[in-house]
Structures are given as structure tokens and as C-alpha cells.
Write a sequence for this structure.
């Protein structure tokens, strides 16, 4: 899951950036409203984490611009402004959730997962596809009833494929979803990690449409 973190406070931003990454998220961090707007115009994110008090354009300006373009990416406002009126204003401006600072990282990640469930129309906290069961809260996977130990990149590739079951994701779409900025991407990264996933799940679990991309095989449900 690729997140856009919009936060101008260096201490909060760097600790959130590191904390979210350690929870398995891909995070792009921007520090002002103008850059946030430009970034959100060209990149699709799973969720935007938006501070309100920013240099230049405020978080609410960024949110208004996003929604007026018809972009419905989930937005969670993270703000020190915790009056009831601020929260109402944030939600009524198009935010999906509002978390007053300071907050607990675990609560934030739980809210991100809850938003994803709601968007995906899922009632279960687990994601399932065929024989694969993925638990986003524990970052744990089982296949054909047995626990599978995956490295963090492998988890990220599998999560990207499970977020859009039935869809063929191209190499560049996979790279977009799994890698944020500031990352050196090895030229064979996709092939390398998909190969590892197939070895740990099964050769047929992830299919390749030649020249197009990868998708999860339709196996009978677990
Ligand atoms: Ca701020």
C-alpha cells in the first residue's frame, strides 16, 4: 500500500515515515501543500495522510483541490487542531477520517486498514484470494492452510496483487505500488520478487500475461 504523507514538521514526519515503513507501507513524504497537490495529481495512492497547517497552501486547500477534481482517494487528516469544529470542517471538506495529534501509530495503521476494507467492500479483516489468505494487520500470509514466511518486499508485491484481484498489473504498476521515492530499484526487482513468491506459494499461484503483466491465478477458494 502506497501512502502519501503530507507533513511539514520534520520530527513528526520522519518518525511517521519510518514507523509506517516498518509496518509494511510504502510512503512518499511531502512537506508543503504545493508539492502535495502536484504529487497527488500524478500518483495514485492507497491513502493520503494530511496535515492541515502547512506552509503555502493548507491541507484543506489540498483536500478541496483533490475532491474538486473528482479524486476519491481516502484521506485521513492528522492535525493538532482538535476542536470539534475543526474535525467537522475537515470531514465536511471531504476527509474520510480525522485523527488529532498526538496519536498512536498503531491506531493510525488500524484506521488505514479500516478505510481500505470499507473501500474494498470487505467485512472481513482478512484478504482472501483462492488459497491465499493475507492478514494486513499482522502482515501474515497463509497458502493452502499453511503459514508462509515472506520477506517485506514479497509481502508488498503480494498485497498489491491482492488489492486488485483479477486485474493484470504491469511491471510499472507493480513498481509504482511497491516502491516509493528514494528507493534504488534493481532492474530485475519485479521478476526477482515474483519468482520468490512463486517458490514460497506455488508456481501457478501468480500468473504472467506475456508482455502485459502479472495477476493472481483463480484457484478454488481456501
Ligand atoms: Ca503542520
Amino acid at each position: 500500500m502506497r501512502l502519501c504523507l503530507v507533513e511539514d514538521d520534520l520530527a513528526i514526519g520522519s518518525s511517521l515515515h519510518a514507523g509506517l515503513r516498518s509496518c509494511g507501507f510504502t510512503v512518499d513524504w511531502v512537506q508543503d501543500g504545493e508539492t502535495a497537490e502536484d504529487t497527488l495529481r500524478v500518483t495514485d495512492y492507497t491513502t493520503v495522510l494530511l496535515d492541515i497547517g502547512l506552509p503555502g497552501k493548507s491541507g484543506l486547500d489540498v483536500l478541496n483541490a483533490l475532491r474538486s477534481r473528482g479524486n476519491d482517494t481516502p484521506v485521513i487528516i492528522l492535525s493538532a487542531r482538535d476542536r470539534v469544529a475543526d474535525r467537522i470542517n475537515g470531514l465536511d471538506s471531504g476527509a474520510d477520517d480525522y485523527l488529532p495529534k498526538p496519536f498512536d501509530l498503531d491506531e493510525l495503521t488500524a484506521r488505514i486498514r479500516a478505510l481500505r476494507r470499507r473501500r474494498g467492500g470487505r467485512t472481513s479483516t482478512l484478504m482472501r484470494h483462492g488459497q491465499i489468505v493475507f492478514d494486513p494487520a499482522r502482515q501474515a500470509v497463509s497458502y493452502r492452510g499453511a503459514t508462509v514466511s515472506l520477506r517485506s518486499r514479497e509481502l508488498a508485491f503480494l498485497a498489491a496483487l491482492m488489492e486488485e484481484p483479477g486485474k493484470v498489473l504491469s511491471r510499472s504498476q507493480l513498481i509504482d505500488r511497491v516502491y516509493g521515492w528514494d528507493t534504488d530499484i534493481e532492474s530485475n526487482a519485479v521478476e526477482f520478487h515474483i519468482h520468490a513468491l512463486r517458490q514460497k506459494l506455488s508456481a501457478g499461484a501468480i500468473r504472467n500475461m506475456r508482455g502485459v503483466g502479472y495477476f493472481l491465478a483463480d484457484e478454488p477458494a481456501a
Notes: The domain at 127-216 is CATH 1.10.10.10 (Arc Repressor Mutant, subunit A).
